[in-house]
Design brief:
74 residues; mainly alpha; Lyase 2-enoyl-coa Hydratase, Chain  A, domain 2; flat
């Protein structure tokens, strides 16, 4: 179990810190609010993330078939 937990942690940490934090915030918010409110909150987070340097880096890295180098900046 510890091996699987470490593998999952490594996989999560390979993603943009902005995305990881945003996902945690959305999940926590959605747990305590209605479906409609949760979807509006997701839309708010997504619209903010569209302007981030990390999204551009993720897209560029995907097209260049390399691992992204996230800067954790909006």
């Amino acid at each position: 179990m510890l091996k699987a937990a470490r593998e999952m942690a490594a996989r999560i940490s390979s993603h943009s810190p902005l995305v990881v934090q945003g996902t945690k915030m959305v999940m926590n918010y959605s747990d305590e609010h209605s479906l409609e409110d949760g979807l509006e909150y997701v839309a708010l987070w997504n619209s903010a993330f569209i302007q981030s340097d990390d999204l551009i880096e993720a897209m560029t890295a995907f097209l260049q078939k390399r691992k992204p180098q996230f800067k954790n900046r909006l």
